[in-house]
Amino acid sequence: MKLFALWLVVILQVRAVWSQNQSSYLEHFWSYGRSEPVYPSPDIEGWGNWIVAYTKAKALVHQMTNEEKNNLTYGYNSMTIGCSGISGGVPRLGFPGICLQDAENGVRGTDMVNAYASGLHIGASWNKELAYTRASYLGAEFKRKGINVALGPVAGPIGRVVRGGRNWEGFSNDPYLSGALTGVSVRGLQTSVIACIKHLIANEQETYRMPPMFLPGSFNQSVSSNVDDKTMHELYLWPFQDAVKAGVGSAMCSYQRINNSYACQNSKVMNGLLKGELGFQGFVVSDWGAQHTGIASAAAGLDLAMPSSSYWSNGTLSLSVKNGSLAQTRLDDMATRIIAAWYRYAPLEDPGHGLPTSLLLPHRLVDARDPRSKQTLLQSAVEGHVLVKNINNALPLRNPKFLSLFGYDGVAIRQFTGTWMGLDNSLSYPDGTPVDYIKIAHIITSSADPNSHLPGVALNGTLISGGGSGSNTPAYIDAPFDAFQRQAYEDGTFLSWDFSRVNPQVNPASEACIVFINEQSSEGSDRPDLADPYSDELVVSVANQCNNTMVVIHNAGIRLVDNWIDNDNITAVVFAHVPGQDSGRALVDVMYGKQSPSGRLPYTVARKASDYGSLLNPEVSSGNQNIYYPQSNFTEGAYIDYKAFELQGITPRYEFGYGLTYTSFAYSQLAIQRDPEVNIEYLPPGSTIEEGGLPSLWDVIARISCNVTNTGAVAAAEMAQLYVGVPGGPKKVLRGFVKQSLEPGQWKEFKFELTRRDLSTWDVTKQNWILQRGGYPIYIGKSVLSIQLVDTLRL
Ligand SMILES: *[C@@H]1O[C@H](CO)[C@@H](O)[C@H](O)[C@H]1NC(C)=O
Ligand SMILES: *[C@@H]1O[C@H](CO)[C@@H](O)[C@H](O)[C@H]1NC(C)=O
Ligand SMILES: *[C@@H]1O[C@H](CO)[C@@H](O)[C@H](O)[C@H]1NC(C)=O
Ligand SMILES: *[C@@H]1O[C@H](CO)[C@@H](O)[C@H](O)[C@H]1NC(C)=O
Ligand SMILES: *[C@@H]1O[C@H](CO)[C@@H](O)[C@H](O)[C@H]1NC(C)=O
Ligand SMILES: *[C@@H]1O[C@H](CO)[C@@H](O)[C@H](O)[C@H]1NC(C)=O
Ligand SMILES: *[C@@H]1O[C@H](CO)[C@@H](O)[C@H](O)[C@H]1NC(C)=O
Ligand SMILES: *[C@@H]1O[C@H](CO)[C@@H](O)[C@H](O)[C@H]1NC(C)=O
Ligand SMILES: *[C@@H]1O[C@H](CO)[C@@H](O)[C@H](O)[C@H]1NC(C)=O
Ligand SMILES: *[C@@H]1O[C@H](CO)[C@@H](O)[C@H](O)[C@H]1NC(C)=O
Ligand SMILES: *[C@@H]1O[C@H](CO)[C@@H](O)[C@H](O)[C@H]1NC(C)=O
């Protein structure tokens, strides 16, 4: 609650601070002319399924005065409605405004809602059907609360910086996996509300994410992500394209700068890439407080400023149209885009009706939960668990007589009465220093020493999500201990536990010792480390006393394990990620073999942090001018995560796509079939953009299949992965994945489709995706390094 209040204060400060003197000659030197100007802003076209909503929106906007159009382009501070943001309305014409609410993994900060598994957890499930169903239930909860826009899914940060604080909010640092899950999530959410694909774009570190809000008078600006055009297309923009293809109704521009131009006034990004090349038909909303100019941001393609705007309020835009500084068509387009998305996906009459401003004041209960979502909540939690070590079939557990449980992460947070921010369990640093909320407010607004952090570990309760606006509010927390106790009741197991000490004593009669640790991560702060020493000490302390030690890590991001992984007493390790409220139940299902684990790592776990090279850490400025204008040069191109490991010949501890199960699978009969009818010219046919870009990018060029047999003794789902060696690119890039359940002895055909985009590279001269002639190695495997079948596709 306290923290939430602070967050609000922080947001409200934005306006005050931005009126301070921020100009200097350096600003002009750094900020101008480094990002290509693209004007004018493309108007909404009403393509495809937008036509009905577009026509209605045009008609409504036609009846509005310029003051009324202006009124709906920015947020109001409401005294009665608790939305993260609410836009102005046009009461005269019956448009009530739109309510926008956090976030991508569940409705946050209110009551009577569910906490779903977070993005990274869904990434680890590699399950498109499940991701779709989850998003559908999620969207319906937003709608029942009267929310028009659910602020998610997250496709950026993609996870370039390994210590990046928000990497857990999105699905994976692979653009194909992220894009596939992003596309289905947008479709699922938009069965009820408007989805908001965020954060556009290259928002890859929290350090220096915004100008230091609490240091008025400072010249410091946000970090600039300097990204070349090829990398932009092949990595960062890729999943955004899937979102637009899926019909996404809104997009959020990010805090930081791209090529030194702030994301919310970057015309190349909004007018050029999003609305031009990708044919986006929705509206662009600023991240909270990310608007830094008036007419410039409107002309560059920003449509809605949140949570308020000192630049656009009081009729500024309509006056700007009057005196000729802003085109009438731009103001019309801003209003039309907002109203069209509203008509198409969420024309709610009473926005925000289920969101009181304070939960501690009397209010009507609006139950957003649907009992039918239970199965999906649990199954999403189950499938994001990744088993990475399992010696001598230590798992699954089979009616153990005596289990010992350890670790601060085994039990739920002790108090939860207010508004959830996901940091309620992170109240002190491992050295005992309590968290100081003033300091946190400085950290999350880039006003503290860039090397200061939020706690990297949540010591005060099991981790079910990371922290910040991407967290979600649980209806309850089923902690590991709760679920193990229920199972102990069924099996007659004797339990012994110590969730307090870092050096607990172990009863030598324990059949197994399970240690629960976590790795916390939050918006506003990059992580202090990839393996916190406190948790490592705890694991080693138990392992020294127990020869059947199992480690469960609730990790909101990559977690290294090399400080103890080779200890023979450690027989099983589970990356349990961020499972939401059904955490314990899901864990017990996996550890007791009620379901075989089917999760796979959506990232690479290195042996040591330095193996990530320059991508380990956020950019911290050094040098003279860079002190004010931090520069992050994305010189590695598309070579992040497994592509970088393969390029440099580094063997990871656990590679991308890795994960064990309780059975074994055999692969055979790779078949490649190129469609002889389909166009394989160098340039994609056609030149007419539609929503999602050139339609021919989705032409299916080849169909691949193989046969997978369950050769073990238990039922399990296999997740077959297809990698392609696109000529001139990384050795392998993920271009397909299929998950299917198989009974023991059963075989199934696994089928993949490769589209033109999947096989193309971005040509900066042609400004297009090009398809090269030659041999494309096709790899099918259990992970990027465990390749089972290889052949070549010839074009
Ligand atoms: C604003 O910044 C300029 C450039 O550094 C400086 O000359 C001027 O004095 C500042 N004005 C105020 C009011 O601080
Ligand atoms: C950023 O600059 C690079 C190099 O000049 C250029 O390739 C790229 O298109 C620019 N991107 C944006 C968004 O300005
Ligand atoms: C602008 O929006 C606010 C908030 O919805 C509303 O109270 C006000 O009447 C609107 N102004 C106009 C001119 O419609
Ligand atoms: C809008 O105008 C009102 C009344 O003139 C003024 O009090 C307020 O400060 C203005 N708001 C902004 C954001 O400029
Ligand atoms: C036009 O009006 C806007 C809003 O009042 C103002 O910021 C801008 O300076 C004006 N431009 C000209 C050329 O008068
Ligand atoms: C802002 O810039 C100053 C140099 O003027 C630098 O010393 C300081 O570390 C920067 N502040 C932050 C929060 O990065
Ligand atoms: C949080 O956990 C730490 C470590 O166990 C403990 O020192 C601290 O007192 C706890 N804080 C609260 C408020 O319970
Ligand atoms: C493994 O556990 C046994 C107790 O079962 C202990 O004696 C031994 O030292 C432990 N080994 C390691 C490497 O911790
Ligand atoms: C592990 O420890 C248990 C109990 O101390 C003992 O019975 C068992 O033989 C040990 N197993 C191994 C492989 O050392
Ligand atoms: C980033 O690239 C620019 C232009 O090439 C260069 O001047 C600057 O030193 C680089 N910054 C860092 C931190 O590498
Ligand atoms: C798939 O593989 C299994 C096991 O080798 C085999 O029995 C089955 O006939 C194969 N299916 C096809 C369609 O060839």
UniProtKB/TrEMBL annotation:
Residues 718-784 form the Fibronectin type III-like domain. GO terms for molecular function: beta-glucosidase activity. Residues 1-19 form the signal peptide. It comes from the Eukaryota. Keywords: Carbohydrate metabolism, Cellulose degradation, Glycoprotein, Glycosidase, Hydrolase, Polysaccharide degradation, Secreted, Signal. Pfam families: Fn3-like, Glyco_hydro_3, Glyco_hydro_3_C. One of its GO terms (biological process) is cellulose catabolic process. Pathway: Glycan metabolism; cellulose degradation. Its main location: secreted. Its EC number is 3.2.1.21. The keyword Hydrolase applies. The keyword Hydrolase applies. It catalyses: Hydrolysis of terminal, non-reducing beta-D-glucosyl residues with release of beta-D-glucose. One of its GO terms (cellular component) is extracellular region. InterPro entries: Cellulose_deg_GH3, Fn3-like, GH, Glyco_hydro_3_AS, Glyco_hydro_3_C, Glyco_hydro_3_C_sf, Glyco_hydro_3_N, Glyco_hydro_3_N_sf. Beta-glucosidases are one of a number of cellulolytic enzymes involved in the degradation of cellulosic biomass. Catalyzes the last step releasing glucose from the inhibitory cellobiose. PANTHER family: BETA-GLUCOSIDASE, BETA-GLUCOSIDASE M-RELATED. Belongs to the glycosyl hydrolase 3 family. This is beta-glucosidase.
